[in-house]
Every structure is written in structure tokens, then in C-alpha cells.
Amino acid sequence: VHRDKQSTYIPPKRCIQENFYSDIIDGLSYNPKKLPSKYFYDEKGDQLFQQIMSMPEYYLTRCELDIFSNKTSELATGIISDSEQPFDLIELGAGDAMKSSFLLKYLVREDMDFRYIPIDISGNILSILNDNLRKDIPDLDIVPLEGEYFDMLEKANSLSKRKKIVLLLGSNIGNMERDEIHDFFKQLNAKLNKGDIIVIGFDLKKNPSIILNAYNDRTGITAAFNLNLLTRINRELGADFDLRQFQHYQNYDPISGACRSYLVSLKDQKVTFGNQTINFRENEPIEMEISQKFSLPEIEHFAQYAGFDTITKITDAQKWFVDAVWQV
Ligand code: AVJ
């Protein structure tokens, strides 16, 4: 990376870096400006997300952990129809696999013939996952893949023609806009075969204050998580964002279920990236992340629209979160 601001910026040769550069430049040339939240997860971003998951306000992980740790057999029964058949268990956005490890242990104990393929955009978290699982579940056959959901699903497809069980947990689906969710499920359905299973974790609509608080913590961890993307852009793309001049703002719309984060420019300012200059007006927001919340009928609608049958829906004790099991 060229740190000399006078020189023309030449993106590094690695493909992910080129995409990173063009995605950031594209996003900042939109009106309103937008930065893709999938880039939050560098090493520091992974650490901040681990901190978010242990905050008292961030109920999502605890709720889904309740499902995976206390309703493991119910979940396993939902995903395994024919115990004779070997399968691939593919997890999109696996992170540290904290929740899925309960299911993995259960399946290994039941002597199921399967391979675990965790997919994540962060190579850093995948290597942590790999180390932990090799220690915790030595008998598990694990093939980590670093990259984007569909690219790596394609790769997993080329590895074997076995039955597939795909996990998308933690309300990761909520990081997509409604239209993107429709397209995503349609595309996923098209890539799978009859009888394949998907398990999707959806965060449910609930008291709006509870949702807002989960993303608007007093300690500022979520703010730091958002601001860290600017630090990453500075470091990896040679930009000069002044972090003190951007403020995190979070908002929840209880009707649409969209919980959105923004970084607001605190003054008129310019940010440079090599030969590019981006202008910000005072109080201009950058759209950072959507964490969409859902109702049970909305979830059923997605399944029908994309051509899945609902096998079962498992909620936590508080009924704040649901893992839906769908079949092609
Ligand atoms: C990992 C995408 C599910 O949207 O709830 C947590 C990320 N952002 N706090 C979410 C996140 C702010 C999280 N997901």
C-alpha cells in the first residue's frame, strides 16, 4: 500500500484487495454514501465482534446459544431425515462456531458420517475456529474455506456431491436488505438439490428499545466496531479518515424491522485515497450496516417465495430468536 498521499494509489494484486478498494470507492460515491459491513471483520473487527457478543445488551448470541445448547436433539432431528446418508454440513459466516459446536458435538457423538465446511470472509476467525475445534472435537472432519458465501458454496459443491445441510446463523441474513434477502434465498435454492436442508437464524421483532439497546451500547463497543472500518480503510487503502470527526448513530424502525447504523461526519471535510478525494458535508451520514429484524409470517413468506418447505422452527425460551429449518 502506498502511504505517500501524493502518489497515485495502486491497489495490491490480491483479488480481495482490489474488490475492497473498488467497493469502498463505489460506496462513497453513492448518494447517500454507503460502506459494506462485510468489511468490518479484520483482526480488530473480529475482536470487537467477540466483545459485542459478550455485552449484556447483545441478546442475539445468548438466545441462539439457548437453542443450540438446550434444543440440540430437536434441531438434529429436524436436519437429519435419513441417517444412512453421508452429508456436508456447510456453515456460512461461521465466525468462531461457538453455537454450532453444540450441534457438531452432538452429531459426532451420534456417529454421523459428515464433514464440516465453515465458510467465513475472515481468515483470522477461521484459523481461531480451526484451532478450537481440533482441540474440542478431534474426531471432526473439518475443511475451512475463506471467502464470500456463494463463491465458497460453489467451491464446496465442486468438492463433493453429497447431501448438503447449510447453516446461516446469528441473524447474519439480517445484514442484507429485503430485496437482497429474496435474491439470496432464490439463488441458494437454485444451488442446492432436492432434499438438501438449510438452517437460518432470524432475530425476531420485539420491544423496539431492547433491539435499539443491543446496537447502541453505552460502552461504545458498537461505535468502535463501525469506526474500525475507517481505520481499516486508512491502513489498507492509504486513506486519511480522521476518526474523531465521525460519530456513530444507530436507529431502529419497528415497522420495517430495519436496525441501521450510520457514521455521521461532524464537519465539512475531505478524505483522500491516493488520487481520489471524497467530500463530506457537516452532518452527512454514511450508511454502515443493516441488522434486519423479522416476524414469523415474514419468515414463512421468504421460504415460500424461494421454494423451500418449512420442516421446523425452533425458538429460544424468551421467543426472541428463531432458527428455521427449511428443505428444498
Ligand atoms: C454478525 C451481522 C449478525 O447484525 O447483529 C453486531 C453484527 N453489528 N452489532 C448483527 C453486529 C453490530 C451482527 N451480525
Automatic annotation (TrEMBL):
One GO BP: methylation
Superkingdom of the source species: Bacteria
Residue intervals passing through the bilayer: none
Residue intervals of the Histidine-specific methyltransferase SAM-dependent domain: 21-327
Pfam families: Methyltransf_33
Gene3D superfamilies in UniProt: Vaccinia Virus protein VP39 (3.40.50.150)
GO molecular function: methyltransferase activity
InterPro entries hit by this protein: EgtD, EgtD_Methyltrsf_superfamily, MeTrfase_dom, MeTrfase_EgtD-like, SAM-dependent_MTases_sf
Keyword set, alphabetical order: Methyltransferase, Transferase
Protein name: L-histidine N(Alpha)-methyltransferase
Organism expressing this protein natively: Sphingobacterium gobiense
Gene name in the database record: egtD
